[in-house]
Amino acid sequence: MSQAPVAAMLLAALTRLITGVNARWVSSAPTMAQRVYYANHASHLDTLVIWASLPAALRATTRPVAAADYWESSRLRHWLACGVLNAVLVERGQGHGSRTALMRINEALRQGNSLILFPEGTRGEGNSLGELKPGLYFIARQRPDVELVPVYLQDLNRILPKGEYLPVPLIGSATFGPPLCLSVGEDRHAFLQRARAALLALGSPL
C-alpha cells in the first residue's frame, strides 16, 4: 500500500515540531541502500521520530515493524499505520523472532523496503537498554546484503511519558550510527552483544 504523500509530509513535520528532534549521523549518512534501522524503545514516539528523521525519499520506502494490537486499537492508529506509515504489523507476544513475524519482515525486505524495528521486543523505561531478542540476528543471517543501522533515541520518554497523551516541551534526539553486518562465523550471542554495544556507544557522551 502506498503512502498518502500529503499526510506523510504533514505527519513528519508535526513529529519534528513536537519533539524538536535533532537527527545526527555518526560515521554514516542517509542513503537509498536497503537498511534495517534498529533502535532502543521507550516511547510511542520512537517509530515516528526515526521515520520523520529520514529524508522524504527514504521515508517512502521505509516501513516500521510495529505491534498490531497497539496500531489496530483505533481507526486513527490503523489509518496511520497502514495508510501513512505502511507498517509491517506483527503480534506483540510473538516478537520479531517468531516464524510469522520473520515471514512478514522477509517479505517486506524482498519487496525492496527498508525497515524500522525495536529488537528489545518491548518498550522500556528509557534509563537502560535491555537484551536484544534474536530476531535481529535471524535477519542479519538471512539477508546479509541489508545494512543494519543502530539508532539511539534520547529523551523521547520524557517528551511523552508512559500513560500520558500530551507531550512535554522538551527536545529529543536520534543518533544514527555506522552500519554493521554479521561477521563470518559469528554466533547469535556474539552478534547480539555487538549490536547492543553499538547502540550503547551512540548514547554515550561525546
Order of helices and strands: HEEHHEHHEHEHEHEH
Overall helicity: 25-40%
User: Per CATH, which architecture?
Assistant: 3-Layer(aba) Sandwich
* Total of helices: 9
**Residue windows where pLDDT falls under 50 for at least 5 positions:** none
CATH topology grouping: Glycerol-3-phosphate (1)-acyltransferase
- Mean pLDDT value: 87
Number of strands: 7
CATH-wise, what's the superfamily? Glycerol-3-phosphate (1)-acyltransferase
- CATH C-level: Alpha Beta
Question: How many domains, in number, for the residues?
Answer: 1
Largest sheet: 7 strands, mixed
Percent in strands: 15-25%
What structural class should be given to the helix and strand makeup? alpha/beta
- Work out the radius of gyration: 16 Å
Outline, from the CA principal axes? globular
Through-space gap between termini: 41 Å
Strand order of the largest sheet: 1-7-6-2-5-3-4
In short:
The protein has 206 residues and is of the alpha/beta class. The protein has a single domain, classed as 3-Layer(aba) Sandwich (Glycerol-3-phosphate (1)-acyltransferase), CATH 3.40.1130.10.
Q: What does this protein structure show overall?
A:
By secondary structure, this protein is of the alpha/beta class. Helices cover 39% and strands 17% of the residues. It is built from nine helices and seven strands. It has helices at residues 5-19, 46-53, 56-59, 68-71, 75-84, 99-110, 135-142, 156-159, 188-203, and strands spanning 22-25, 35-39, 62-67, 88-90, 114-117, 147-154, 173-176. The protein has a seven-stranded mixed beta sheet, with helices on both faces. The protein is globular.
